[in-house]
Design goal:
This protein has about 675 residues and is an alpha/beta fold. The protein has 19 helices and 28 strands. Helix content is about 35%, strand content about 25%. Strands 3-2-4-1-11-9-12-16 form an 8-stranded antiparallel sheet, with helices on one face.
């Protein structure tokens, strides 16, 4: 969804030019989360002045607008400064300057907010605030947060002074829905509040000296009462231990806040992830984390400061034209990273450390339910059959939104596997909480350490594919595919009858990087095929069956989302039940026909298509001599049937990429879409 960046420096001198540059660079790293509009809020020349800059379109347009403002003193230096930035994926109100974040409480910008998520009760809040005389400037749900903060502040006038934390607690208690947000106020200069519920938010810490401890204590309200009573000396009793210098006084420090680590990794690798209903308050170089409620006893009493393993080069395009192209070509390495340290190829043994404590529970469960959305759902479909074959446990794959709509029965002896690249997919998280309430074992499969799904599940597997920036998922799909196959292999270790089958799969896992490189070598011919045959077409059918059905669905999704061509994945066994009516000499068809147990049945589908004057493009194995030279073919290496889908999806990923380029589409940022869907 939307991308948030915040910056706060304390006793570290920075000029406005560098602050703005850091904000805009961070935003550009988050454009995959939304790119309808962008904006920043920075301190003015006095404590009561906030400067807002907004622009429709990408971050580059905002940068151009700021550079063109000749009145802005970019050389002004600040020892303390609070700033925030936002790139938007429109949910309430069309993309426009008035609907862009940051939003303000009033023309003086007494309260300023950036927000990722959806406030579901915003209409009720807006109606209340309009009745109180507050004028709204936009169509968004976010503006009611800033207005509500001003209303609470105005209501306290004449009584005892309210702290920034207490004020925002009162605001957050009135909000329903999902959010991650940053707030600043002219009434509380050099202070920032960060809070989240359902949407990701992290805080990066940069200091010249080593931190005393690698965690921040969570405070539950007593400290605020003491502060209100004036019980504090030169250093507060509850001052965060992590941020004290050796002499006990605050030190020079910078805070970087963001929706995703990619926005801040070039500045610091020390980060802490906020939990739901955390309210982080940064002031005078100190970070305090408060809780909205104390009734959640399962919450930790501290937040660990972790070290990011991400490198800046991983989120740069390098010599490639687009992130999607780079990520397709990274798959020989990303699949190795998914297997690294987990597969002993000599002994044909798989060890997933994150599952070890729960293997017995998984093996004796009544059924395995895979729950995911989009591409992640297709990875579940692709591996469901091998799970059933190896474990002999009934398996079902569910779209998270439909799973929730149906209120699907879940029991204590079920195991539920939640698959999400970001680990923050809203529907998948809601399904996870639904299953936890019903006592099922919940397993997470994500690409993001510290994400909501990885924290809330009892066990899981990180796919270790590396950062994926392109909105269309490519390497995450193949890594999810492999991670799920590894799960099936480990769960079946106690079945002697499956020993030979497991050995075949593990042997081909070893060969997989080489097979992928061979497949990528056909890129030039795929580009030619896209240009000469498919580029001008309005629609495309992709057919297969068995293990290849998921490949058809995933390929159709890729072509739709990046090239805007209508595409449909069809189970070849269903041709006679309706789809065959679409086939004629003008309908482009891709048929996946690889050497597996269903090869004769797919041959039958090929005959049905050609009998209706269809001219299918066939994806087949190298060395398959049964296919007439009259057909256009895309040849891929032959692997064991349950892994063949990894090799057949790659040429289709490349085809979708080339079709998008030929159509002049922004490949990495398709219209109307965002990378991480953190709202329902």
């Amino acid at each position: 969804m939307c991308g948030i960046v915040g910056y706060l420096n304390y006793l570290v001198e920075k000029d406005r030019r560098e602050i703005v540059k850091n904000l805009l660079t961070g935003l550009s790293r988050l454009e995959y989360r939304g790119y309808d509009s962008a904006g920043i809020a920075i301190d003015g020349d006095s404590d009561t002045e906030v400067l807002l800059f907004k622009e429709v379109g990408k971050v580059a347009a905002l940068r151009q607008k700021i550079d063109g403002d000749k009145k802005l003193d970019m050389d002004k230096k600040f020892l303390n400064h609070v700033s925030m930035a936002h790139t938007r994926w429109a949910t309430h109100g069309q993309p426009s300057e008035r609907n862009s974040h940051p939003h303000r409480s009033d023309p003086k910008s007494e309260f300023t907010v950036v927000h990722n998520g959806i406030i579901t009760n915003y209409k009720e809040l807006r109606t209340l605030l309009e009745k109180k005389g507050y004028m709204f400037e936009s169509d968004t749900d976010t503006e009611c947060i800033a207005k509500l903060a001003k209303y609470v502040y105005d209501s306290q006038k004449g009584s005892k002074t309210i702290s920034f934390t207490s004020l925002i607690k009162a605001v957050v208690k009135e909000l329903e829905g999902a959010f991650a947000m940053l707030l600043k106020s002219t009434h509380f200069p050099n202070e920032m509040i960060a809070t989240r519920r359902g949407s990701p938010l992290l805080i990066g810490v940069k200091t010249a000296k080593k931190l005393k401890v690698d965690f921040v204590d969570v405070e539950f309200g007593a400290s605020e009462a003491a502060a209100a009573a004036g019980e504090q000396g030169p250093v507060k009793r509850d001052q965060s231990r992590a941020f004290l210098s050796e002499d006990g006084m605050p030190q020079q420090i910078e805070y970087y806040l963001a929706s995703d680590p990619s926005a801040i990794v070039e500045h610091t690798k020390r980060v802490l992830y906020l939990e739901d209903d955390d309210i982080a308050h940064i002031s005078d170089g100190d970070l305090h984390i408060h809780r909205l409620r104390r009734d959640d006893g399962n919450q930790s009493s501290f937040r660990t400061i972790q070290t990011l393993e991400m490198e800046l080069a991983e989120i740069m395009k390098g010599s490639f034209d687009h992130f999607m192209q780079k990520e397709i070509y990274e798959q020989p390495e990303s699949v190795v990273n998914t297997m690294r340290g987990r597969v002993n190829f000599e002994e044909c043994k798989v060890t997933l450390g994150g599952l070890n404590k729960y293997l017995a529970t998984l093996r004796r469960c009544r059924r395995i339910v895979f729950i995911a959305c989009g591409t992640s759902f297709h990875s579940c479909l692709a591996t469901r059959a091998i799970f059933e074959e190896l474990t002999e446990i009934p398996c079902q794959a569910e779209l998270a939104s439909d799973f929730l709509d149906r209120k699907t029965p879940i029991f204590r002896d079920d195991s539920c596997v939640f698959v999400s690249q970001s680990g923050e997919t809203a529907d998948t998280i809601l399904a996870l909480r639904y299953c936890l309430e019903r006592g099922a074992l919940c397993v997470g499969v994500t690409n993001t350490v510290g994400s909501s799904i990885s924290r809330e599940t009892q066990c899981g597997v990180h796919i270790n594919a590396g950062p994926e920036i392109g909105v269309a998922s490519t390497k995450a799909y193949t890594s999810q595919f492999i991670a799920l196959v590894l799960m099936a292999l480990q769960l079946s270790e106690d079945k002697i009858s499956m020993t030979e089958r497991r050995r075949q799969i593990i042997n081909d896992l070893y060969e997989l990087p080489r097979y992928i490189k061979e497949t990528l070598a056909s890129d030039a011919s795929l580009k030619q095929l896209a240009s000469e045959v498919l580029h001008k077409e309005k629609s495309l059918l992709i057919m297969g069956r068995g293990y290849q059905n998921a490949t058809c669905l995933e390929a159709a999704l890729k072509i739709k989302e990046v090239s805007y061509m209508h595409s449909e994945g069809i189970l070849a066994g269903e041709l006679k039940h309706g789809p065959l009516a679409l086939i004629d000499e003008n309908m482009p068809v891709i048929l996946i026909m690889t050497k597996d147990s269903l090869y004769p049945k797919v041959q039958s589908a090929l005959q049905q298509v050609t009998a209706r004057k269809g001219h299918p493009i066939i994806i087949c194995n190298k060395g398959d001599s049964n296919i007439s030279a009259d057909y256009r073919t895309i040849r891929v290496p032959q692997a064991v049937d349950c892994l063949q889908g990894i090799l057949t999806i790659i040429p289709l990923q490349l085809l979708s990429y080339h079709l998008a380029c030929l159509n002049g589409v922004d490949v990495d940022f398709p219209r109307n879409l965002a990378k991480s869907v953190t709202v329902e």
